[in-house]
Amino acid sequence: MEPPRMGHGDVGGDVTLFHTSQLDSLINLARENSLWYLLFGLACCGIELIQTGGPRADLMRFGAIPRASPRQADFMIVAGTLTYKMALRAKLLYDQMSEPKYVISMGSCANCGGLFQLAYSVCKGVDKVIPVDVYVPGCPPRPEALTEGLLRLKELVRRERWADKRRPEDGAPPVPPSR
Amino acid sequence: MNTQELHERLRARFGEDVGPLLEEKVDSSCVVLPSRIAEVCRFAKKEVGIELDHLEDLTAVDWPKRAVIEVVYHLFSYRHRHALVLKVLSDRAAPRVPTVEGVWKAANWFEREVFDLFGVEFVGHPDLRRILMPDDWVGHPLRKDYEEAGGYHGISNVRENPLVELRRLDERARAALSPKASPPKPATPPAGPEPA
């Protein structure tokens, strides 16, 4: 049993906080075991992404099903080199995903431009256009490494304080408190 | 037919418009006048015995010292299994070359690529626009004097060395972990164990 989390908003007494944190755990347990990802395999890391979804290192056993549409996805695995031409589309797809959403940046090219950092057409890292939650290094990362990245993301989801989410003010971008 | 004989046939038909053969171990080439290239290519494709019906590649080389952009055509014949390379020298200040898209349809995208990356204008091309770079890109990247514009649509094109960046983040994390004296808020009870 988790100890009750303290110190965030004085909403009633201890009993309310205790229930809230249990509710947090329950909700996050459900959420972390059904994170669906948007297939965004761009280059060689896309092959490894497909393989990680394959039978040997099965991503689906964690509840992570690939979806082709950003509207149905919980998070986005950016796998591969992002060019400037593609970066605008990546931003568009990220904006089309609904909250709460996360990004795993897979491979060196998505992390920082990777092997092609000096190229004129390569965006040096996907975090120049969208906020990233987990960086998975590698060229390409082994399926085990990407699985570890997914487990870190699950841990991040598990720690989220669901009860503290508020609607954003008008005009402010919606950013959950975990970031 | 080997490359010398092919060159002789072209010379016989077009005279001085086809330059002398530059012998190499692989890919001997000859320079053709830009104004005659479409005719030469049509002849090379249709003529019985030559029939260079496959345009393997159409690319360019930028020579700033010679002030030319050389457009290179790699031709191959499936029927006779011989090959030839033609070169066209275009003025670097205003590079214009007649299109060979009417001869080989494959030239359509090849010439778009050369236009995109070198800036060579192909006269008579039905659809000359950028193919690899974004449509609103400024500049022709494969020229020797190309300089990046410093970002695209607000995305900057510089990034700190990742090792330096990661070291800085590590230092910051290490500093945050070390015990700091922070005054507790008066209303709340002492903090429980932080989630790891």
State the oligomer.
Answer: heterodimer
Query: How would you state the average pLDDT of chain A, rounded?
Result: 84
Major β-sheet of chain A, in short? 5 strands, parallel
Number of strands of chain A: 5
| Gross geometry of chain A | globular
CATH class of chain B: Alpha Beta
| Helix content bin of chain B | 25-40%
Query: What is the CATH architecture assignment of chain B?
Result: 2-Layer Sandwich
Overview of the molecule:
The complex is a heterodimer of chains A (179) and B (196). Chain A is of the alpha/beta class and 179 residues long. In chain A, 35% of the residues lie in helices and 11% in strands. In chain A, strands 2-1-3-4-5 form a five-stranded parallel sheet. About 7% of the residues of chain A have low confidence. Chain B has a five-stranded mixed sheet, with helices on one face. Chain B has a two-stranded parallel ribbon with strand order 6-7. Chain B has one domain: Beta Polymerase, domain 2 (2-Layer Sandwich). The model of chain B has no long low-confidence stretch (mean pLDDT 88). Chain B is of the alpha/beta class. The interface between A and B is medium-sized, with 22 and 23 residues.
